[in-house]
Write a structure and sequence with these properties.
By secondary structure, the chain is mainly β. The chain has a domain of 92 residues: Tachylectin-2-like (N-terminal domain of TfIIb, Single Sheet). It has 2 helices and 16 strands. The strands form 4 sheets. Strands 1-2-3-4 form a 4-stranded antiparallel sheet, with no helix packed on it. Strands 5-6-7-8 form a 4-stranded antiparallel sheet. The chain has a 4-stranded antiparallel sheet with strand order 9-10-11-12, with no helix packed on it. A hairpin with a 5-residue loop joins strand 10 and strand 11.
């Protein structure tokens, strides 16, 4: 099994979580030509619920236990990213989000379990009460769109409906309303069959 993470904005690599015959998860970097490079991680990757990059290429990850980490993209399979490179910036409840992603300015967005879209600068320390100090910019209708959510460099918000597979491009919400679908442009359907997508936070000419 192979699950691709979003591409970094710099467009230098594609990170893939792959499952080996021993049911361990490893992380592999793949070049634009498709030639595989050595593995950069062998264990602990199955403990994450969400993994994504900020616009500068830092890797963020929320564990299934609710912790939140950030660190440089892994580069050595013998060095644990979780215990040797990452910094803990959240201690609990991060596994309750349905989606986490950045805009081009480095603001962190999240879809909550009660169907809200919230935003704030990313946390920098474990005791940062991020959710309570975030701004709500969507009051409903967001959880169904979390099959894929990401911003383009032009700050357009792209979403894929998990039920019907419709893909939308729309303006960034600014107030706590529920009108994203009404304002967004439908660009296609059936996209819920794809397990992952490259991040639009890179130049279109360099997308694989």
């Amino acid at each position: 099994m192979s699950v691709r993470l979003p591409l970094t904005q710099k467009g230098c690599c594609l990170l893939c979580v792959v499952q080996s015959f021993s049911w361990e998860l490893c992380l592999q970097i793949q070049t634009w030509t498709g030639s595989p490079l050595p593995r950069v991680g062998k264990t602990d990757w199955d403990g994450f619920k969400l993994m994504f990059f900020d616009p500068n290429g830092l890797l963020y990850a929320a564990t299934k236990k609710g912790e939140f980490y950030k660190g440089p993209a892994p580069s050595n399979e013998n060095v644990s990213w979780l215990y040797g490179q990452a910094t803990k910036i959240g201690t609990n409840s991060w596994n309750e989000f349905d989606a986490l992603f950045f805009d081009p300015k480095g603001i962190l967005y999240a879809v909550t379990s009660d169907d809200k879209l919230v935003m704030r600068s990313p946390p920098t320390k474990p005791d940062d009460n991020w959710l309570d100090s975030s701004k709500t910019i969507g009051k409903g209708g967001w959880r169904i769109l979390t099959h894929f959510m990401a911003f383009t460099l032009e700050s357009d918000l792209w979403c894929v409906d998990s039920k019907n597979g419709n893909i939308y491009k729309g303006p960034t919400p600014t107030i706590a309303d529920t009108n994203y679908i009404e304002k967004a442009q439908k660009l296609g359907w059936g996209y819920n069959v794809y397990p992952s997508f490259p991040s639009p936070l890179i130049k279109p000419s360099r997308v694989l």
